[in-house]
Design brief:
The chain is an alpha+beta fold and 78 residues long. The chain has helices spanning 34-47, 66-74; strands at residues 3-7, 10-12, 17-19, 28-32. 29% of the residues lie in helices and 21% in strands.
Length: 78
């Protein structure tokens, strides 16, 4: 089972709003492997949304500060 995700908006942290991508090429479809599709579907089920849930969200479901995403998800020590 493979699939795709469509990117249609971006989070403007400073303006605290979702906006259209800066260029038309920012609207894109990204191919996803089967295991990632399964994980994203499980995330969607847990969040109780219709496919619009955020991958990186605060505990209250709000968009995260980009610096916190880097710190909390990508720079964790082993």
């Amino acid at each position: 089972m493979a699939g795709s995700a469509t990117v249609m908006r971006t989070w403007d942290w400073r303006g605290k709003t979702f906006t259209a991508p800066k260029t038309q090429t920012g609207n894109r479809t990204v191919a996803l492997s089967g295991w990632l599709v399964a994980e994203l579907e499980a995330h969607q089920d847990r969040s109780g949304t219709d496919g619009e849930s955020l991958i990186f969200a605060t505990r209250t479901g709000q968009p995260m500060n980009p610096s916190n995403v880097r710190r909390d998800f990508f720079w964790q020590s082993s």
